[in-house]
């Protein structure tokens, strides 16, 4: 790089884009930075439960509740995909519902930011929500998030993950 211009690790700009997506159904990231030891991410505080909390408290959700959640998660994913960003870890814990009923998807770009800055690994995904290509470490695309969304849909309707497993 030129004198005075910091060299960014490969992929950092793309990871920042992922973390800084601006959409009403995506948790807002206000600031992001690193130092020699840690990555710092300051995000919007969401007052309300995750969908995992709702499933724990209520069991399977009604068709109307599921439709409302999927509409908003789908909108967030469509926006992210249109901006070249994959989530890669859609699951009930990463879908939040505000006290006034708005749905927000959390953790866009967080693992990528941490990995690229040297603070952790972006293995990405959670067993039960990952398609085979993600489990195998193959090339991923929008279909990876669509698979996870389908697993989430099944779980919201039945209170059971169709692919639950402790091991690959």
Structure in words:
By secondary structure, the chain is α+β, with helices and mostly antiparallel strands. Helix content is 38%, strand content 10%. It has helices at 12-19, 51-58, 63-82, 110-116, 132-135, 142-158, and strands spanning 29-34, 39-43, 95-97, 103-105. A two-stranded antiparallel sheet has the order 1-2. A hairpin with a 5-residue loop joins β3 and β4 (103-105). α1 packs antiparallel against α4 and α3 (63-82) packs antiparallel against α6. The longest helix is centred in the middle third of the chain and has 20 residues, at 63-82. It starts with 11 loop residues before the first helix and ends in a 10-residue tail after the last helix. 30% of the residues are buried. Residues 1-8 and 114-122 have low confidence and may be disordered.
Q: Numbering strands along the chain, what is their spatial order in the largest sheet?
A: 1-2
Beta-strand fraction estimate: 5-15%
Tally of helical runs: 6
How would you spell out the order of helices and strands? HEEHHEEHHH
The end-to-end span amounts to 42 Å
**What class do helices, strands and sheet pairing give?**
alpha+beta
Radius of gyration (CA) equals 17 Å
List low-pLDDT spans. Answer: 1-8, 114-122
**E-strand count:** 4
Portion of residues within helices? 25-40%
Round the mean pLDDT to the nearest integer and report it: 82
Q: Which outline best applies?
A: globular
Main sheet characteristics = 2 strands, antiparallel
